[in-house]
Structure formats: C-alpha cells, structure tokens
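User: what does the whole thing look like in 3D?
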Amino acid sequence: MEELKRLVREEGQNLGNGILKVDGFINHQIDPLLMRRAGEELARRFAGKGVTKIFTAEISGIAPALAAGLALEVPVVFARKRKPVTMTEPVYVESAPSHTKGVEVLLMASPEYLKPEDRILVVDDFLASGHTLAALVRLVEKAHATLVGIGVLIEKEFEGGREALSTLDVPIESLVTIAAMEDDRIILAE
Amino acid sequence: MEELKRLVREEGQNLGNGILKVDGFINHQIDPLLMRRAGEELARRFAGKGVTKIFTAEISGIAPALAAGLALEVPVVFARKRKPVTMTEPVYVESAPSHTKGVEVLLMASPEYLKPEDRILVVDDFLASGHTLAALVRLVEKAHATLVGIGVLIEKEFEGGREALSTLDVPIESLVTIAAMEDDRIILAE
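Assistant: Here's the predicted 3D structure for the full assembly of 380 residues, as structure tokens:
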C-alpha cells in the first residue's frame, strides 16, 4: 500500500528503542479515508476466507479493525484491557507483555461475542514482537473459534513477531513492512 | 435514527445505577455498517458547519468518531487517557470524573493535532453527565480551536449532561435519547 508506505517513511519518527511514532495518522490522529483504504486492502488480502468477525485489541487496533470490518461487512470485537462495568462475567482473559508500556497488559473478551462458529481475522495496528497478537489468538482459541489470519497496518520485521507467530500456520499480512530503523531513517522492506 | 433506537430498546441492558450495557453493538462488539450510518447521520446534522476535525476520547468514542470523520472527510483525533511513549510533550491535559469507573480520568491531546484554525466537532458514544464531553471541550479551548458542536450516539437525558453543556452555546445532537431506564425497560424520549 504505497500511500501508507510513504507516510511511514516520511512522517514516521524513530523514537529509539524500536519505537515508531505514527501519531499523525494512526495512534492519536487518524486519517479516516486512509484507514478505509487500508481496511479495503486487508479485506482484499483475506477475501474468500469466509471471515465472520474481526477481532482486535483496544485502543489503536479499533480504527484498522473497523475499517476492515466495513470492507468485509462483518462485526468487529475489540478486546478490553480493563474490565468496564458493562462487561459481565464470565470473560476470557489473557495477558501480554507490552514493549511500549513496560508492563503486562490484560486482554479480555466476552464469550457472548466470540463463538465457536466464528471464523476470525485478527487485526491490529502493529506487528512488533507479536505478544499482543499471540494473546488475541489465545483468546480466539479459548472461544473455540477458527483463526483464519492476521492482518496489520505496519510490521516491524526486526522485532521477530512474524517468526513467533509462524507456528499458527495462518496467513499474516502487513501493509507496510519496516526492515530497520536507523537514526532518523525508516527503512522499508522490499 | 430508527435502527439505533430499536437496538437500544431491544438489546440495551439496564445494569442499574444509570448504567446501560450496549456491548453488542458499541462498547465491545461494533457493527461497522451501523456505525457508518450513524456517522453519516451525525455528518448530515453538522453539514455546513465547516468542520475541519473530529475530536473524541478513547476508547469507545473512536468508532463513532471515525465514522463521522469518514462521512465528513476530515481527520479524527482521539484524546488519550494514558500517555503512550509515542506522545511527546508538551501536551494539553484535562480530567473528568468517570461515573462508570468511579475515578478521575485524564484526557490528553497533543498541540500538534489540535490547532487554532481547527473547527472541531466533538463526538462520543454517550452523553450522560457531560463530564467527559466538557473535558474534551476544555482541551479544544486550550488549543484555541473553535468548537462547532457535539454529537453523540446515545444521550441519557436523565443524567443532565445536556443542561450542563448548555452554556457552550453550540448544537448538541444525539441519535438516540433515553428518557428513563426502569428495571428492564429502556424508555426513549419522543
């Protein structure tokens, strides 16, 4: 997706320690038209897979998941990191270490919205170490639903997440792949 | 918006203490097509106001804000409740008491994305006491931007938020207005 590649290359900021700031179009401000096109591209890559639901994690996963859900015309479920008062138990709970937060993050989802008959596409903004995505996949497994693939906006190849998720044996698609971040250069994979 | 009214009436659950559970289509699972139509309806109500940006609060505000941003073709900014590592200072910070969480919630926004020339439509999932929306409006004021209106999916009229926000002297639009919640009945305003 050339448009997103250009934005990452030109507007992405390397904050050091593997952290990429893309607050201008993903993590604080969102360009809805760009996000819609990203959702359409993810939908195109998973067309014919029989996806019945998109599953993501709050917070920054919501926009790309919603865009993919719009394009595939299926519901979106976002795992909660804190249990809101409206979330009635029982819930499925998993945890993942967060590189950017330096803590263990909980991810909760209700059995009401993840069902054994669901064919689930997991979507998130980033694929980095893969810890958050792996926790989402474990929630899918707890619900006895079928994982059909993983789609992200930006992959940081050098953090090894794709390798860590390879045993899942599902397609993993990223719209932009970053090979390396060196000082103020964001180097994309071919 | 008849479709959303029907869902609130038929699928909304009164959890007591003024708390409405709409996890099946707003707060945990989202229907992207319904959300798109809600965004189009909000856009219709604020057409001609020269909106340049949508401003909301994470988490559940993101979906309706993105839908409104899609329809109005303007960027969406979501205030952060916790400062991510990518959020570089200086930031604007406000706080609001949260009825459903029982604590004071921080709302942060970067001056990079709220500018004096912006004409801002504040969007959220709920208008209840109005505390969160008032904090978003204070952030708009800190940025010296212009507030052009407030749009929400669901208003809980009996919590008095509209009254609390009336001094702002901008249009406040809600797609569904709940007059009262009595046991398992959700009573909509006419």
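In plain terms: The CA atoms of residues 56 and 78 of chain A lie 5 Å apart. The two ends of chain A are 12 Å apart (CA to CA).
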